[in-house]
Amino acid sequence: MLNALGIINIEDSTVDITGLQSYRPVSAISILGRYRVIDFMLSNFSNSGIKDIQVYCREKPRSLIEHLGSGLQYNISSKKGSLRMMFGETSGISDVYNHDIANFMSNMQYIEENDKSYVVIAPSYMMYRANFSDILDSHIESGNDVTVLYKVADNAKEDFIGCDCLTLEKDKRVSSIDKNRGKYKKRNISLEAYVLSRTLFIELVKLASETSSLYWFKDILADVLDKYKVVGYPIRTHVSCINTLSAYFKTNMKYCSLEGVSELRVDTWPIHTMTSDSAPVTYGTNSSVKNSLIANGCNIDGTLENCVVGRNVTVKKGAVLKNCVILPNAYIAEDVKLDHVVVDKSAIINHVKKLEGSVQAPIYVKRRDRI
Amino acid sequence: MRQNNMVAMILAGGRGTRLLDLTKKVAKPAVYFGGKYRIIDFPLSNCANSDISIVGVLTQYESVLLNSYVAKEQYWGLDAKDSGVYVLPPKETDEAGFEKFRGTADAITQNIDFLDQVNAEYVLVLSGDHIYKMDYADMLNYHIKKEADATIAVLGVPIKEASRFGIMNTDENDIIVEFEEKPAKPKSNLASMGIYIFNYKTLRKYLKADEVDPNSDHDFGKNIIPTYINDGKKLAAYRFKGYWKDVGTIDSLWEGNMDILDPKSGLDLSDPGWKIYTGDVTDLPQYVGDDAHITNSYINQGSVVNGTVDHSVVFSGTVIEKGAKVIDSVIMPGAVVCENAVLNRCIVADGIYVGPGVKIGDAKSDKIELVAKNVVE
Q1: Is the model's pLDDT at A156 over the cut of 90?
Q2: Selection from A194, A261, A186 nearest residue A225 by Cα
């Protein structure tokens, strides 16, 4: 077990996955058929040996609580590890006060009482593979105060909008932190993932709380760049930033390919998730499926092309789905034609026979909608 | 509170010689079935779904994998405080030294201490190698209502096949009056499914007597049940309606898998009301490639399919490459079917590699090919 407390952080209002986010936190959004967004970071933590984990949640915790359970599925021992869900008590009057600092402050006792020397913080909406054991070693060896993970992005005009970006000196020390407003193509995008000692973390959280009632952790960090040695650590694997419905859609599509699947499927780095004990997929006599990622329990008798399909989805004969992300338990009736559509959980598409969106603006069908 | 104090004992010691190489290294109950499962998942899931909390699994042949598998009681939700799966292989004892199970009844006899300890009132004896879904709680209610000493689940089989089974002849109240093992001229078509409920107190006496009987084969069908009948004990027949199959041969294992693809067979593994549970594989959803053509099939997560799959059952971790054709076949976990290979009516064992262009099996033949060794060309 690593000598670090893992913290899955919440995300601020720059992350806006229209529709999907109305029902659950971003961390609990279903992705790539059988997963939830948080599975990727939790698997990073667990595979790296971080087995003492706090998961923060801003609102609507139900689906997240259900999904996390006791943590056994993430390879966290029921005796020697801990996966705790931390819910801020102070969300209160306005959403702007419901930031990570408020959540850390209201759970401060559990951070102070923790026995680990270091803290690894990361939000769930940034999806990538990272070995935090190596990163922690490098952090300790370097003697830096804070290590910030970043990605050199060459698509910062379209993606990562609203994310922090770092100005780095030659020795990778962070000299300033700005917002990516899509002006430049190439930026060092902060993954909002930090490694630092637990004492410094507590100190910075308290300082943030005293400085401004609107501060997030990333704001206080930008304030103390002169005082502390904050150094960037580049992540070289692919990073998906799931901060809009379009980005969510594109991330699903990216991994819906032979290359995408091989990239995710690393024997030494499994992606853990909850099982729902669904049966294998049943393909009917009329099914025709190309380039699709399909979770268990589905019953497919229609046509699928470039689709990511969640658990227990039914696609009837004559239905044609192209470039769609279908969340669990949805039902697509006969002869329905969908293109660039995100269908939320348990929706039934029956009488509307045609929906067509685009990559930039996929159509969203609400949870439990009957259309 | 305990739902009932019926303890299930699953007989899972058999080798299953007729499954040939599939049971060379694992016991028959651990053999894969239905895209995702092992055969023993069926009785274990039935127990869990019937609210039975204590399940003993009697293992013997090649039991290392089976023992460690069934010990993961959380797979089937048998992990609550008062429940558990107990692995019961033969053991060395003070009185008898080290003795293996001499028969199905002896396997239970050797675990009388266990049944005493868990305070069993009823004992449900099951076989670890049948595919079916049954509510044992319903069978227990029937057993209690009939005030029977034992109840045997029976299945109506076509009369011309009845001579392959143990046949129960009953009176008009479904009380068993005679038991005939594989009769040449069957008087009834009620075949024993190898599923028994016994009142433990009575069974204990009979097992103790059977243990020291030098002429006994220590078998339920051959010895215990006939003795019950001879002694005038009340044996009720519990008529089961539904899918049931002994998948003890390559042909029947293949047929059982094909039955999943037939909506009329009665074998529906996708029913959320009676799930079959199993060990989950940490793997991605299945990926279906641009050149895939899948019809009428049952395919598990973690597979990558880019060829033609028709009327087949495909397990996790498998790869079906472009141009490959898998027809009327069963592809077990981790098997790879390379480019342009053609499989007809095959069972491909787990981890097997079928090289490019290899052709196995014949669509016109009745024979089912077992592919248990890598085939390069």
Answers
A1: no
A2: A194
